[in-house]
Amino acid sequence: MTKPIHHTNVSRRALLAGLAGTAALLALPAPLLARIAEPNPVFRHGIASGDPDASSVILWTRVTTDGPAQGTWELSDTPDFARIRQSGGFVTDASRDHTVKVLAGDLPAGETFFYRFRLGNAVSPVGQARTLPEGRLDRLGIALASCSNYAFGFFNAYDAIARDPAIDFVLHTGDYIYEYGGEDGWGEKIARTIGRSHEPAHEIVSLSDYRTRHAQYKTDAGSRAMHARHTLLACWDDHESANNPWVRGAQNHQPATEGDWDARRAASVQAYFEWMPVREPEHTAHPDRSRAQFWRAYSFGDLALLHTLETRHTARAKQIEYLDYAPSIVDAASAERFREEVLGAPDRPLLSPELEEDLEAALAGSVRAGQPWRLIGSPMVVARLNVPDVVKLGLVPDPMPRLAAARSPEELAKLGADPAVSLGWRGLWNLADYTDAWTGYPWARERFYDLSRRAGASDLIVLSGDSHSFWLNNLVDDSNRPAGIEFGTAGISSPGDFIESGFGPQTSVALDRAYAEHIPEVVWTDNMHQGYVRVELGRSTGKASFVAVNTVLSPRYATKVIHEAKFARSGGQVRLT
């Protein structure tokens, strides 16, 4: 069904309908509502909560001021702050980019609270925060979000999440910001037409750059609404630092012009921890760990476990580049050797040993506790996405005559950058769609499945991002044993790969259909929309709703559920029904 059109400007109407979303807030005095709705030059980046456990939650804001600042924060059971449950002071300065993070503790489990910040006479917007529930829980609603690129459009899906009454928490699986910039930066052509060019106006490399980019993203009205309304559960992917990083570098990092990779990565991680409502290591169960070891286990009463993954900075092996091997792939036999000996080579990890240990223990604990659901927050799609023969299916031209005519590595590289040539060639040999995703790391994926099976958890629900497409997948291991199901989300604003590659609407839809019909693990996919996935869990059944926004080019939008998938537990497995 299509929901009414909304406007994401922060107005009194938006606060009433979306930012708060509770009957209690509707009862706030009109003068207070009006004051919250006014533009706030001190708290212009809004407020946020995140990274909760059963007795505490992180509260976040940023103050716009010169020099050091001292202020206060308040937590209440009601949005009118008639009785303050907790309060305290904060101090911030330029060393942390004037951001503020408070760990509000000693809270009851499974409750909703209201919070705000004060600096002098300035008062922040009011936000809602939740602690994790304990004991019996009959229902849980999670919004799955990923890939919010400021240049490509307004974060309307964030605004829709803020207004969605079925959502309890938001899981963001990465690409919360993008590093690109400049006249040739990805998305800049669209950005100039809608007034959303990236700041700074170049690719971000330094700490100051990353801070400025995070600040820009948090001025988006949809982002501010979502953060004010819902507590965030987050993991990162690649663009929080640079495209396709691995432990010793990144595809989008050139040391000759952009300096030392370790320094750039450290700057990106520092800015992320400053600007996001996430716990510092000292407030976790492993205070001796580094910020880079950023994964979490969230337990929702007796109903579900959610474990997020870190796949970029603590273990990842370098991605395989097809261009390095293309000349040697000449027939089905050589393609199979490439899949087994290169892509499938052992000891090409994605997960660190510490993460694997934590994950196996959490999954085993969930099984012992009798929780019916085990969710994995994955930055990337896990399912095998080997490209079908799109040439034989008549969707793209045969690339082989053009490739055979190439007379130099430079010509071959230029052809490899042509989306139709690249897709056709991968389809000819049934190769992985994208070697940066799990399908480019089959050894690591099988290790992940083995770990889950040892824990008694071959019933995973994987919630994934990165691909800019909606996905509904059945997961199996190398022996074709069920491993779980997967829901993947489209971008908040990032465009689908087929459309962005220039295939056009008709061909892009046909490619979606070909993937669903010819890739065994894919049940349904869509790269034509932006939006989010709403996952609702009951005691033995659940439903995933793929919610699309009709535009990101204007802050006026409508939402529509374009697909629904029901699932249930049966015989120790989770299955689509």
Automatic annotation (TrEMBL):
Domain (Phospholipase D N-terminal) ranges: 45-131
Checking InterPro entries in the record gives:
Metallo-depent_PP-like (IPR029052), PhoD-like_MPP (IPR018946), PhoD-like_sf (IPR038607), PhoD_N (IPR032093), Phospholipid_Metab_Enz (IPR052900), TAT_signal (IPR006311)
Which part of the chain is the PhoD-like phosphatase metallophosphatase domain?
143-542
* Pfam annotation, one family: PhoD_N
PANTHER family listed in its UniProt record? PHOSPHATASE, PUTATIVE (AFU_ORTHOLOGUE AFUA_6G08710)-RELATED
According to UniProt, the name of this protein is: Alkaline phosphatase D family protein
